[in-house]
Design brief:
Radius of gyration: 26 Å
Distance between the termini: 67 Å
Oligomer: single chain
Strand content: over 45%
Number of helices: 2
Structural class: mainly beta
Number of domains: 2
Shape: globular
CATH topology of the largest domain: Methylamine Dehydrogenase, Chain H
CATH class of the largest domain: Mainly Beta
Mean pLDDT: 80
Length: 345
């Protein structure tokens, strides 16, 4: 009798409908509770998108010379006109009272930045009353020939700046600048092109002639020539003490680990490297200028990507080309000399 009923149900499709109903309930339950913990959900790759002009009312006057992004959704841009701009989620805000002109800026955290130009640096802190940034001027040195061009701050109490013409470095600690120090192996005509200090105890600097210098135990070592050439220069970024990446103007890549520099190939572009930022050992981004095009390449998963063109109307006569800074592997900001900015997210 029972066998006959089962056979009849199977023939009528009733069991199939009941089975589908049960399976449907299971699928709904899984969707509500979530996938098993051992199953990874897909994560989309970050993309470069436009972040607008630094100054949408006067874009031609806001030519970026440097960018620093201490965390995602917060960046500070120094410009050749002497005005600074702060990126807060979704827009750029000008800082009317700033004098962050024409060289470099470093922000170890959102409440403190240091910028340098051809004669003096300015320290930047949040104003407690309105949240605006106030720039305080102070002289690095009394020397009339000083030309601090690059700076990196490991914290709000330690920064290192380097000269753009004389081979000298200046350390800033607890609110005061130390006397200029001539780096061994440099001359009065040597120019520093980059500085990176992940901690107070370690820094690396790139100089004209493709020479890399490292600072440890309060002493600057003699330089290592990575890419010789009269007009060669290095961009250096150090995500951790003793770990650095360097890119020469002609796209050659070098890494520093275990106290030694080694070559790591050449970027797949015809442009000149003008900026480099490595927030971690496993991720870097480099900005290049190729003709009038601003390009960016990234290093992730053990390899460099092909160039992505961000803009095609940059001024290739300008010495800055494009500035770039990454707070993480999924958050970078780039700004070209056409006044436009781009964010990786």
């Amino acid at each position: 009798m029972a066998e006959g009923i089962v056979a009849e149900h199977l023939r009528s499709g009733l069991w199939r409908r009941r089975l589908l109903s049960i399976l449907g309930s299971v699928f709904v339950l899984v969707a509500l509770v979530g996938a098993p913990s051992g199953v990874a959900s897909a994560v989309s790759s970050p993309k470069w998108v436009s972040a607008g002009y630094l100054d949408k009312f006067q874009p031609s006057t806001a030519i970026p010379s440097a960018l620093s992004c201490p965390r995602p959704q917060f960046c500070v841009a120094a410009t050749t006109s002497g005005q600074a701009y702060v990126w807060v989620p979704g827009r750029w805000r000008p800082q009317e009272s700033s004098d962050a002109a024409g060289a470099d800026v470093s922000c170890p955290k959102p409440t403190f930045c240091m910028s340098v130009n051809t004669s003096y640096p300015t320290a930047q802190t949040y104003d407690s009353s309105g949240g605006d940034l106030t720039w305080h001027d102070e002289s690095v040195t009394s020397s009339e020939t000083a030309n601090p061009a690059v700076v990196s701050c490991a914290s709000a109490s330690f920064c290192m700046a380097a000269d753009g013409t004389g081979g000298e470095v200046y350390s800033w600690q607890d609110g005061s600048w130390a006397a200029a120090q001539q780096v061994a192996g440099t001359s009065d005509s040597d120019a520093f092109s980059s500085m990176s200090c992940p901690t107070q105890s370690f820094c690396a600097a790139g100089a004209q002639g493709g020479i890399a210098f490292t600072y440890a135990n309060e002493v600057w070592g003699s330089g290592t020539t990575l890419d010789p050439g009269e007009h060669s220069y290095l961009d250096i970024s150090c995500p951790a003490p003793g770990r650095c990446v360097a890119a020469s103007g002609d796209r050659k890549i070098f890494t520093f680990a275990g106290g030694r520099w080694q070559s790591n190939g050449t970027l797949a572009s015809t442009g000149d490297v003008v900026s480099l930022s490595c927030p971690t050992i496993a991720f870097c981004a480099a900005g290049l200028i190729s003709g009038k095009a601003a390009e960016v390449v990234t290093f992730s998963g053990g390899r460099w990507t092909s160039p992505v063109v961000l803009a095609k109307d940059v001024d290739n006569e300008d010495s800055y080309g494009m500035s770039l800074s990454c707070a993480s592997s999924r958050s970078c900001m780039a700004a070209a000399t056409n006044g436009k900015s781009y964010v990786l997210r």
